[in-house]
Amino acid sequence: MPLTYLEEQIDIHSELLHYAEVIRFFLELEQNGNVKAYCNGSNIAGRWVFQIFNKEFVKELAVIISRAVGRRRKKPPVLEVMSGDGRLTEFLRPLIKRLCIATDNKDGRYNIGYPKWVETLDAIEAVNKYSPPFVIMCWEPYLSTTGIDIVKLGTPTAWIGNPEMCGHTDIFDYPHIPLESKYALSRHDFFLEKEFKSDIFFFNCKPEWI
User: Fold this and answer.
1) pTM metric for this prediction
2) SS3 state of residue 119
3) Residues 187, 22: contact at Cβ < 8 Å?
4) Domain locations in the chain?
5) What b/e readout covers 119-154, taking b as 16+ CB neighbours within 10 angstroms?
6) CATH 3.40.50.150 fits 59-180+193-209, yes or no
7) In angstroms, rounded to a whole number, what is the distance separating the alpha carbons of residues 147 and 123?
8) pLDDT at 1 (0 to 100)
């Protein structure tokens, strides 16, 4: 059954949907409702939405992470920091043959319902604790420089978001590779005008992984 704009406003992240389904939903939402309000929790799950996930987008990310971690004998976990409700980690877990851990310092900035399995931990503390082979940051808080500190450590990192609306632009002074994903969708996009503003940017990664 195709997604439609409903009064109860379905939770677009209750399961991982195909790009075509997600884009249709947000086109209709933009025509008939308010994307910003929806992404700020006015959906049936009360979920805050920053990056809008879909199967194709998550698969692209999972493939690159799998290439990066390879077949190393030591298998520390892939780590998502500043993960919010950890939904991206949940979507990645079936696609990566490696333990994936989500952490967040849960500072109360947003009214997020954190599952108990999302570990309460500062991002740098999490990296020091787990020594991950790969770090994921999705929508780092605006003007935060934590991402820069993580990139400086030399760990392969995926930074996901809209460079103008999250994190600190100085992070892009460091060598990076944009994925230029056609499946990247976010809360600040204009779906009717096909104006999309987010992407995955890879730091400390080899070009052949991308």
Assistant:
1) 0.94
2) strand
3) no
4) 59-180+193-209
5) bebbbeebbeebebbbbbbbbbeeebebbbebbeee
6) yes
7) 9
8) 44
